[in-house]
Amino acid sequence: METQKRLIFLILFGLTLPVFLNACGTHAQEPLANHELILATTTSTQDSGLLDVLVPMFQEQTGYLVQTVAVGTGAALKMAEDGNADVLLVHAPASEKALMDAGFGKDRMLVMHNDFVIVGPMDDPAEIMGDLVAADAFGRIATTAATFISRGDDSGTHKKELSIWNNTTSDPNGDKPVWYFESGQGMGATLTIASEKAAYTLTDRATFLANQANLDLAILVEGDAVLLNVYHVITVNPDTWPESNYEGALAFAEFMTSPDTQALIKEFGVEEFGQPLFFPDADKTDADLGLD
Question: How far apart are CA 255 and CA 250, in angstroms?
Answer without folding.
Answer: 8
